[in-house]
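Ticket #4471: structure output looks truncated?

Reporter: J.K.
Steps to reproduce: submitted the chain below (77 residues) through the standard prediction queue, then opened the result file.
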Amino acid sequence: MTMGRVAALGERSRVTGLALAGAVVLVADDAQAVRRVWHSLPDGIDLVILTPAAAEALRSAPAMPGGRRPLTAVMPP
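Returned output as attached by the reporter:
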């Protein structure tokens, strides 16, 4: 069984600590940056932990290329 990787996407102050747990940290401090990072997620990411602001930014984002859609979880506010 192969395990996918976990990424954390959002504001620096909310995601950097997740690197200690092995997450790939993807800092994006505004909605435009969130959408840009989302559409260029590294291969092998199966779960993306989103900050509430990042989740809101992705609410209206177009679909990812190739129909790829990793599982997401949103941090509590």
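Triage note (M.O.): checked the attachment and the full token line is present. The two ends are 34 Å apart (CA to CA).
Status: closed, working as intended.
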